[in-house]
TrEMBL record:
<keyword id="KW-0812">Transmembrane</keyword>
<dbReference type="InterPro" id="IPR001304">
    <property type="entry name" value="C-type_lectin-like"/>
</dbReference>
<dbReference type="InterPro" id="IPR018378">
    <property type="entry name" value="C-type_lectin_CS"/>
</dbReference>
<keyword id="KW-0472">Membrane</keyword>
<dbReference type="GO" id="GO:0030246">
    <property type="term" value="F:carbohydrate binding"/>
</dbReference>
<dbReference type="InterPro" id="IPR016186">
    <property type="entry name" value="C-type_lectin-like/link_sf"/>
</dbReference>
<dbReference type="Pfam" id="PF00059">
    <property type="entry name" value="Lectin_C"/>
</dbReference>
<keyword id="KW-1133">Transmembrane helix</keyword>
<keyword id="KW-0430">Lectin</keyword>
<keyword id="KW-1015">Disulfide bond</keyword>
<feature type="domain" description="C-type lectin">
    <location>
        <begin position="90"/>
        <end position="210"/>
    </location>
</feature>
<dbReference type="InterPro" id="IPR033989">
    <property type="entry name" value="CD209-like_CTLD"/>
</dbReference>
<dbReference type="InterPro" id="IPR050111">
    <property type="entry name" value="C-type_lectin/snaclec_domain"/>
</dbReference>
<dbReference type="InterPro" id="IPR016187">
    <property type="entry name" value="CTDL_fold"/>
</dbReference>
<protein>
    <submittedName>
        <fullName>Hepatic lectin-like</fullName>
    </submittedName>
</protein>
<feature type="transmembrane region" description="Helical">
    <location>
        <begin position="28"/>
        <end position="47"/>
    </location>
</feature>
Length: 213
């Protein structure tokens, strides 16, 4: 009888130990799953925060652009009546600053479709005006191209390149990798004025169109 009781007691303790082990394993699994869920939520919050930050910067840039357009001594197309909607005017020209990025040739096609061409810079004053109205961080295609021979730059509207002042950034044009044949306006590290840079024509960036007012 005592032997049977001892065996039953051993079985009970073994069963309790087994149940305790199973309960412990379940808790570990639950904690692991909970930890993974928290980690996924943190990643989601991080990604959302990054996207929100990027959107906030885009909105800030747009507000700065609109503010400069409306209050920086310029006349919008809507108020002046001399330019199409979405364009801004300066002296005798209208300008369209894009918010999409495409290749140089497609940018020129877009400008032609609007009755104009990529930006041709004739004076320092015109460049300073453009530098004020475009968002700081972006690079823009302009109507400067090296079509036939290395070092022979030309403007898309036929303006003689030698008749206009040049605003190449330091060390430019450098024709890096023997294929940079299209002109850009990019932010300068030394001044507020945008300066020229040569780039591969098949990369994508924003662009500026120009047409007569």
């Amino acid at each position: 009888m005592e032997l049977q009781y001892h065996q039953v007691g051993s079985l009970d303790r073994s069963s309790v130990h087994e149940n305790t082990t199973k309960t412990g394993m379940k808790r570990i699994v639950i904690f692991v799953l909970y930890g993974l869920l928290v980690l996924l939520l943190l990643i989601l919050l991080l990604v959302t925060g990054i996207k929100f930050s990027q959107l906030s910067r885009e909105i800030t840039d747009l507000k700065q652009y609109l503010g400069k357009t409306n209050h920086g001594g310029t006349t919008s197309a809507l108020s002046s009546g001399t330019c199409s909607e979405g364009w801004v005017s300066y002296q005798s020209s209208c300008y369209l600053v894009s918010i999409t990025s495409i290749t140089w040739s497609k940018a020129e096609e877009q400008c032609k479709a609007h009755g104009g061409h990529l930006l041709v810079l004739n004076t320092a004053e015109e460049l300073d005006y453009i530098s004020r109205i475009v968002p700081i961080k972006y690079t823009y295609w302009i109507g400067l191209v090296e079509r036939h021979h290395e070092g022979q730059w030309s403007w898309v509207d036929g303006t003689d390149y030698r008749s206009t002042p040049t605003f190449w950034d330091e060390g430019q044009p450098d024709d890096w990798d023997n294929g940079e044949d299209c002109g850009q306006l990019h932010p300068s590290k030394t001044c507020e004025r945008r300066l020229w840079n040569d780039a591969h024509c098949n990369i994508t960036c924003r662009y500026i169109c120009e047409k007569r007012a």
